Amino acid sequence: HTPVCSLCACSKMRMAPAMMLWLAVCLCGTWAVDKSNFKTCDQSAFCKRQRALKPGESPYRALLETMELTNTRLTLQLINDKNKVRLLLELYRLQGNMTRVKINELKPLKPRFEVPDVLIKEPTTEPMSLLSQDENGVVLSLGVESQRVILSARPFRLDIVEGREVLMSLNSRGLLAFEHLRIRKDTFSYKVTSTVASVWDNVKRVFSSQADPEAEKKDDADPADQAEPEQTAKEDEKDEEGMWEETFKNFVDSKPNGPTAISLDFSLPGVEHVYGIPEHADTAKLKTTENGDPYRLHNMDVYKYELYSPMALYGSVPFIVAHNAQRTTGIFWLNAAETWVDISSNTAGKTVFGKMLDFVQGSSEKPQTDVRWISESGIIDAFILLGPTPKDLFTQYASLTGTQSFPPIASLGYHQSRWNYNDQEDVQAVDAGFDEHDIPYDYIWLDIEHTDGKRYFSWDPHKFSSPKEMLQGLKDKKRKLVAIVDPHIKIESSYKLHDEIHARDLYVKNKDGGNYEGWCWPGSTGYPDFTNPEMRALWVRMFAYDQYEGSMDNLHVWNDMNEPSVFNGPEITMIKDAKHGEWEHRDVHNLYGLYVQMATADGLIQRSGGVERPFVLARSFFAGSQRYGAVWTGDNIAEWDHLKISLPMCLSMSLAGIVFCGSDIGGFFNAPGTELLVRWYQASSFMPFFRSHAHMDTPRREPWLHGLDNTRLIRDIVRQRYTFLPFWYQQFYHSHKTGEPIMRMLWLDYPKETATFAIDDEFLIGKDLLVHPVTDEGATSVTAYLPGKDEVWFDIHTFKKHNGGQSLYIPVTISSIPVFQRGGSIIPKKLRVRRSSACMEHDPYTLYVALSNQKTAEGEIYIDDGYTFNYEKKEFIHRRISLANNVISSINLAPDAHFTTPSWIERIVIIGATKPSKVTLKAAGGLESQLDFEFDPSVSVLTLRKPGVNAGEDWTITLK
């Protein structure tokens, strides 16, 4: 959450007077984002500088005589003909139909930052072979069918082709740029002393050689002559404003290393639709940026963010997905510095009529999207994922950054939160309210006010004097609590955590070497250097039960403000010239939130002796954050448009691997009307993370505070979520194993169906449920697109059958949320809803079987203990349930696994069925029996009652 907008509220937070004044001046009375607090591209010196470069012939050429090719790696020098600086290109063919391109300075003055800890391992390489070479370039085989890399020398360009089709081109628009490290000219002019005079003489001698008209020939003639450092670049390069120092408002970025920006363009022939690069409050399909700012990736605490904007938000994943009816590809730009992404398209300006005219007249113009990445520092490290199918793409990306962590099943239930529940009695009253109104929940949350003066890992001694008693009360009901632990530490000599971090010198430093201090909720604040493994290890130990006093095993954690948020910093975050060991904050900025969540998750795992799976929510994230927990869409507003935008925001995150996503139900700021609140509950109940959360200045909004009718509506919504928990859990297991999204755009499962490509107001859960939330005020109908011309879809409430490949008009009331089950699927549910997910652990299953046009269906059941890592030891049940030729069967998908469950199959509901004459069950051991059944001809639903078979055993049911 962001700073409050009330001096009254501020006064409750024990803040220093200066802090209160700052909050009052900067934030009070602000009802939307103050865009002046955040840079545009023109205000970001490196973005403005790079964007001033227009497409044209690249100054870079490849020095083919420097090429070295091993079995799996090509290296080659590139030279910039304008400044004679040389770069080193590395090209790798990776296992799984991927290509990696790295570009760095050949001889940098000092090492440039390369992102650690994001890749789960060094990618496995595969052989490349040289097909041809001449003075114009080389052709390499990528080993997959007819895939090749064509490297053109003058100007430098890479094309990845398959057969005669170009899949992707690099530097085809000539926008490769690499600002080399150099010595500042005024350093040469005014700061040279006698102790370095000989060095200066050498540098002048090198500059003289650059003026020699034969120098370039000498360079080309002798590739080994590369000993000179990169400050040998021509002196006629002009320094531009912001290259060596940059000011934004009153903040000065000293830029001790000077300009270090990098840029590269990628062209995608045949592509009109690109997605990804979260987090932005925008449509899932990315828009062209030619007439405005590029999309920005720079993790920041944005107050009441603006919708349909390329502005940066809390998290950044530099992964873009391109799709057309023939292929799905991706680009992963592994860089953690501030990054801007420009998107252009040759079809963007065309009207529908213009496109129709092209079709009628037989236009030969092929659509193309161009993507340009601009980062402030680091190196170019780009992974090209060649699909070709969506499933292949997610497998490829998961092989690089990992899959979504497998969460405890309780975290898939309902979460009740606000900033803040007042005290232990308030927590107990809210907990009792859920029981009184027969509404299940799994987690209640505590925000920053539960701590002792904003000292994390502590409890307010007056309001939360007996935290274990409170936790035990929840545990007795099989419920849990989440407490906030933020990464800004109160600077106070009596605070144990601060004292230890300070004593061990583990705070982020300022440019002068002292501890960096900023303002956040505690007042004067230190920021732990989470890039340091020693700091992460200290943080991990803080979660031990003997360190985090009052904690128990049913206490889980969320990390807010981990961008990091610095109230008095530039753009409400950390100054870029702060230091993390040898690296500047500018190099690692977008990694900070990932490291915080990583250390927190590791802390919860280690406190349990490595037994229990953690639940950790974080606001800030980067590529790979999916390995550590969940995220949410941040500080949204109680407005209909914010409800609408939550869908494409989470769909975009899911495409980029961040699967466990949700939004604050009802909006964090302001007070939702009852209709908006009910609609938000409906939409969120079919999103992976299901939490209500609100600002401290908003009226209380527990589910029973909005009138009897609305209480009933919300109760039904939450209870419905709990019936689907077995399905959600199976989907998370599948995603954990494969990397496939759970909440997903329709085109992922219907990749050739162009009508699905831009749809982001409805979504699939796995491949079997289609959800179209109602997101318009006063809506009496929605129009949902049902994909798949050969598919059938069944309304889960009425069982009415609809054909796929059509837009369906659907009347709605306030109790409606249109959800459809795909014909040909089987979904497991538990219909005995209890107070929490743990109370339902051993309850029986009901199988919902929706028949395809071919009268077949298939689904899965996954069962384990719900919270430990024992599934990694093969302690689980994984079975396929299928119906074909009038026989339903349960088949073991993991014969080497071992786990038992008392859960049994209570009911099987077959939708789209015909009435049988009899139904025979054959259970494990060969025992046969007749089953009772009911058939409703009005909806063609057959219900088989009490098969009574164990959910983990083999069985068959024959319909005759």
Describe this structure in words.
The protein has 960 residues and is of the alpha+beta class. Among the domains are: 50-179 and 258-401, Immunoglobulin-like, CATH 2.60.40.1760; 485-549 and 558-611, no CATH class; 763-959, Golgi alpha-mannosidase II (Immunoglobulin-like, Sandwich). The protein contains 18 helices and 53 strands. Helix 12 (533-542) crosses helix 14 (592-607) and helix 16 (674-684) packs parallel to helix 17. The longest helix is centred in the middle third of the chain and has 16 residues, at 592-607. 51% of the residues are buried. InterPro entries: Gal_mutarotase_sf_dom (IPR011013), GH (IPR017853), Glyco_hydro_31_C (IPR048395), Glyco_hydro_31_N_dom (IPR025887), Glyco_hydro_31_TIM (IPR000322), Glyco_hydro_b (IPR013780).
Outline the fold blueprint:
Blueprint: H1 7-11, H2 17-27, H3 45-51, E1 60-69, E2 73-80, E3 86-94, E4 98-105, E5 129-134, E6 137-141, E7 147-152, E8 157-162, E9 165-170, E10 177-178, H4 185-190, H5 197-211, H6 215-221, E11 246-248, E12 251-253, E13 262-269, E14 273-276, E15 295-297, E16 319-323, E17 328-333, E18 339-345, H7 352-361, E19 368-375, E20 380-385, H8 390-401, E21 414-416, H9 424-436, E22 443-446, H10 467-476, E23 480-484, E24 489-490, H11 496-503, E25 517-520, E26 523-526, H12 533-542, E27 555-559, E28 579-580, E29 583-584, H13 585-588, H14 592-607, E30 616-618, E31 630-632, H15 640-655, E32 661-662, E33 664-665, H16 674-684, E34 690-692, H17 708-723, H18 725-738, E35 743-744, E36 763-765, E37 769-771, E38 781-786, E39 792-795, E40 801-803, E41 806-811, E42 819-822, E43 825-829, E44 845-850, E45 857-863, E46 877-884, E47 887-892, E48 905-911, E49 919-922, E50 928-930, E51 933-936, E52 941-945, E53 955-959
Parallel strand pairs: 21-22, 21-34, 22-23, 23-27, 27-30, 30-31, 31-32, 33-34, 43-45, 44-48
Antiparallel strand pairs: 1-2, 2-3, 3-4, 4-20, 5-6, 6-7, 7-8, 8-9, 9-13, 10-13, 11-12, 13-19, 14-16, 15-18, 16-17, 17-20, 18-19, 24-26, 25-26, 28-29, 35-36, 36-37, 37-42, 38-41, 39-40, 39-42, 43-44, 45-46, 46-47, 47-53, 48-52, 49-50, 49-53, 51-52
Helix pairs in contact: 9-10, 12-14, 16-17
